[in-house]
Write a structure and sequence with these properties.
Number of helices: 10
Order of helices and strands: EHEHEHEHEHEHEHHEEEEEEEHHE
Low-confidence stretches: none
Distance between the termini: 39 Å
Strand order of the largest sheet: 14-13-12-11-7-10-9-8-15
CATH superfamily of the largest domain: Dihydrodipicolinate Reductase, domain 2
Bound molecules: nicotinamide-adenine-dinucleotide
Strand content: 15-25%
Shape: globular
């Protein structure tokens, strides 16, 4: 007997929702085992227009997530709201017994993420966080190299990077909607890349800074009147196992790049060229630095040709893996048990920056 089709909805039908629905449409074309049944957005008319533009004429539109969750019998939702609205709809969906793929960053504060994880635990449903670079072959290679032991014991990581000029607009630049700027938007990706590679050790302390000089300057950025988040942030984080994480991330600064990612081990080191965003592949070929017969040598690691590893392909893998996890009852493709540590670092750096001193990081039990 054919399996029942999964009923899927979406909460928040702004820009990234289009990428989600395209991947769901690709999945329907390929497998035909899901139905896209509903969407909601707090802006009147936005969900209807979004569904119609996606040829989902039979899907229902709602103004509130609660109403959609009450009236529809959903198996899964994508939560595509701005950061400040990740927690509430995610918790509501889990309470209705619906599996959730929430967009990155996990949320804004550590406390919100803990509440989301408690709802996940109580519901027994899947909560996964939308990190599509996890599905990119060259990104996966970074973890394989570290895990192979080739670098020896990893004791220092520099990560971050980003761009010289590239402050997004829309809901990304205000406290009210985004809550955090570059540190959460693209910082979370670069943190995930390295923390995932070394097995997500627990963060212990953070000494952070956050600046927004370029975003606040009307001569440099034409959204300056609304801009009240960070455009260049970072800090020093101590991780369990005596690992130092040196992090800096930029939407805008007056130099070409705040740096490549460096993973230093006792036997070898790896350089990963920064990309503008870190939302897909590394910025170019990686280099391995090592000692051979007393000589300092380096090896270029050719970029792996990842068939279907382009932007659309990565999103298909992200959505397909969420749907597979729903069907199989888990595990979550990008588990909250890992991403809570990513968020704890961001939260620690934000707190430290506000206080002007180093802070301890404590992740509550869920
Ligand atoms: N994975 C990626 O590559 C990627 C790329 C872009 C954005 N994102 C993430 O996706 C999220 C959304 O980004 P965006 O560019 O689509 O923002 P956006 O502002 O274009 O869209 C957000 C939408 O959510 C709606 N909304 C807000 N609160 C709501 C609620 N409680 N219920 C229903 N609708 C609500 C807003 O009205 C808006 O239409 C952000 O967290 C962002 O970081 C991820």
């Amino acid at each position: 007997m054919a399996e029942k089709k999964l009923k899927i909805g979406i909460i928040g039908t702004g820009s990234i929702a289009g990428t989600h629905i395209n991947a769901y449409i690709d999945h329907i074309r390929k497998y035909g085992d899901i139905e896209f049944v509903a969407g909601c957005d707090i802006v009147p008319g936005r969900a209807r227009k979004f569904l119609d533009d996606s040829d989902m004429f039979d899907a229902r539109d709602y103004l509130s997530a609660e109403e959609m969750l009450e009236k529809e019998e959903l198996d899964g939702v994508s939560v595509c709201t701005y950061n400040r609205q990740h927690a509430a709809p995610t918790i509501a969906a889990l309470k209705h017994g619906v599996n959730v793929l929430v967009e990155k960053p996990f949320a804004v504060t550590l406390d919100e993420c803990i509440d989301m994880m408690r709802a996940e635990k109580e519901s027994g449903k899947i909560l996964t966080v939308g990190f599509q670079p996890r599905f990119e072959r060259n990104m996966q290679l970074i973890k394989q190299i570290v895990q192979s032991g080739e670098l020896g014991r990893v004791y220092y990581i520099q990560t971050g990077g980003g761009r010289r000029r590239g402050i997004p607009g829309g809901s990304f630049i205000e406290q009210r909607t985004a809550g955090i700027g570059a540190i959460g938007d693209i910082g979370c990706y670069s943190l995930d890349m390295v923390l995932n590679a070394i097995g997500y050790p627990t963060p212990l302390t953070a000494s952070g800074f956050m600046t927004g000089y370029i975003g606040c300057d009307p001569e440099a950025y034409n959204g300056a009147d609304r801009f009240d988040v960070d455009d260049f942030s970072g800090g020093l984080v101590r991780l369990e196992g005596d690992v130092i994480l040196d992090f800096r991330i930029s939407w805008a600064l007056n130099v070409d790049t705040p740096g490549d990612t460096l993973i230093l081990g006792t036997k070898a080191g790896l350089r990963v060229p920064s990309s503008d965003c870190w939302s897909d592949a590394p910025g170019g070929p990686m280099t391995l630095y090592w000692q051979c017969a007393g000589q300092s040598v380096q090896t270029t690691i050719p970029v792996i040709n990842d068939p279907n590893g382009d932007w659309r392909g990565l999103w298909n893998r992200k959505i397909d893996s969420f749907l597979k996890a729903i069907r199989e009852g888990g595990p979550a493709p990008v588990p909250t048990s890992q991403i809570i540590k990513n968020q704890a670092i961001i939260d620690g750096l934000v707190r430290s920056s506000k206080l002007g001193r180093e802070v301890e990081i404590h992740i509550p039990e869920v």
